[in-house]
Amino acid sequence: MEGGEAASLLGERSLGLPGRFKTYRRRWFLLAVVCLLNCSNAMLWLTFAPVADKTAAYFHISLETVNWLSMVYLLISIPFGLVATWVLDSVGLRCAVVLSAWLNMVGSITRMFSVLKFLSLGSQSYWYLFIGQCFCALAQPLIIFSPTKLAALWFPDHQRATANMIASMSNPLGILIANLLSPALVPEGKHIPLMLGVYAVPAVTACALATLGIHEKVPPTPPSASATNSNSQPFFTGLKMDFAGLNGALFTVCGLLGAFLLGMYVDRTRKFIESTKISFCLSALASIMFAVISRFRHQAIMLAITSSLFGFFGFAIYPIAMELAVECSYPIGEGTSTGLIFVASQIEGVILMILLQALTVRVSEDPFSTCALDQDGALDWTTPVLVLAGLCSGMACFYVIFFHTDYKRLHAETITADLAKAEDEATAHVPES
Predict the structure, then answer these.
(1) CA dist 2 → 15, 104, 367 (Å)
(2) Model confidence over 34-43: pLDDT tens digits?
(3) Residues with Cβ < 8 Å from 351, sequence gap 6 or more?
């Protein structure tokens, strides 16, 4: 991008005046609130998955009905994703965070109505649970889309990636906590009310902190040159100007859709290995497409399609891989296998974050860049993108060639079912005395 174009995008600024930009300590408070909110929403999402059988018995419903408490998140996030984008870009970060905090809290409290005995809800108790999940699901896109906006508006350029990583990773942290905490809180079905109360605490806390502690949608003085251009734009203008944000939204929404569809497919076919291998290969192919297409100008549509495909196949691997980990590590506890994968992914994420950022090159002018130039120029991400595509391709090949396992849990369940059937048949043929 030419220097004159960059200056017009960023507005009037004096590159030689260090006092032009300023950071505020309260940015860490905002980050903590978003992290707590993100973690709480993920916990509410998968509250019932680890204790599905006990939930079904307590509310006198089927396991398929319990699964809808999680799947409703995926269904609602698809149409509400664009609405969340409009709220975030047109109304502002503060409104998005506070609104999501209230939706999250109202959902968590509504869920508790389902277990209040004095209401005598009977068969209607499940619907309070479901409506509560719907409120929490409405909050999810607002929460997931907030980290990049928060990092852009409140953090200097050398802290943006770290802030975004911390806020975004609090979501899988919430998933991990839910997988460990729900079984610990519900050894028996009668403890379901206790679990709902415990999960409401972080939601209420996050709502109180967001409502009382966040007063501004932007800092009085921006922390960087690019933040001066991060003020909210009209929605459709923003779709054109904030192309990175649009790609992130497409990545997330298509990823949730892919996870939903692949999850339903695997539930019916039990083809864990085949599904993950195909999805891994296709996501690696999408990363190669992105690395190549990003080197050409005026390829916005192709980049958006590539981001969507990368999210669709990449996100789809996550829940299926968790199930596959349980299958291949059985009879080790589900929490142990999930926890090890989460810790390993966090370590890998930190290493990749540091490595890829170290491979960037700061240039004063890049003919291929469509980004606004900061004080010290723009960052050229060509090498990191190519390295990431290579790593994805290499790991996909390694996984396809060398990963083979038996479905130990399914095999054990089959043997148990066969033994039970044989015992029933033997009992049926024993003559009565």
Answers:
(1) 16, 44, 8
(2) 999 999 999 9
(3) none
Sign of CA dihedral 280, 282, 283, 287: positive
Maximum distance among all Cα pairs of the chain, rounded to whole angstroms: 101
**Residues 348-379: pLDDT tens digits?**
877 887 788 788 777 766 555 555 444 555 66
Task: Say which residues have a Cβ less than 8 Å from residue 326's Cβ, sequence separation at least 6.
Answer: 334, 337, 338, 409
Q: How far is CA 427 from the centre of its chain?
A: 51
SS3 state at 379 = strand
**Residue in 109, 114, 130, 82 with CA at minimum distance from that of residue 207:** 109
Region of 377 (left: φ > 0; alpha: ψ -120 to 50; beta: rest) is left
Beta carbons of 339 and 180 less than 8 angstroms apart: yes
- Predicted structure pTM score: 0.60
- CA angle 357/254/380 to nearest 5° reads 20
Q: What is the three-class DSSP state of 374?
A: strand
The set of residues, in sequence order, having a beta carbon less than 8 Å from that of 54 and lying 6+ positions away, is 186, 188, 189, 192
Q: Which of 83, 137, 145 is nearest to 110 (CA)?
A: 137
Nearest Cα to Cα of residue 90 among 78, 82, 98: 82
**CB of 251 closer than 8 Å to CB of 308:** yes
- Segment 164-184, tens digit of pLDDT: 778 877 888 888 888 888 888
Cis ω for the linkage preceding 331 (within 30 of 0): yes
